[in-house]
Specification:
Elements lengths: L14 E5 L6 E5 L5 E5 L6 H18 L1
Antiparallel strand pairs: 1-2, 2-3
Length: 65
């Protein structure tokens, strides 16, 4: 029997932002496997700085493989 509350039309997003329970920290999360959470500092919440830091992190990871 199928779950009537489950939908296959709307899939969970791959990435998202979450706040900590106390609302002081911001996390960038990956919901699909491999799952991870990255804590963002106050300076990193600027959109341009966040994009630059994620690009440099991706380059660093690509060189290590």
């Amino acid at each position: 029997m199928d779950n009537p509350n489950r939908t296959t039309l709307l899939k969970q997003p791959c990435y998202g932002l979450e706040l900590s329970e106390d609302g002081k920290e911001l996390f960038l999360c990956r919901y699909r496997k491999p799952r991870w959470r990255l804590r963002l500092e106050d300076a990193a919440t600027d959109r341009k700085k966040l994009i630059e830091s994620l690009h440099s992190a991706a380059e660093w990871l690509a060189k290590r493989q």
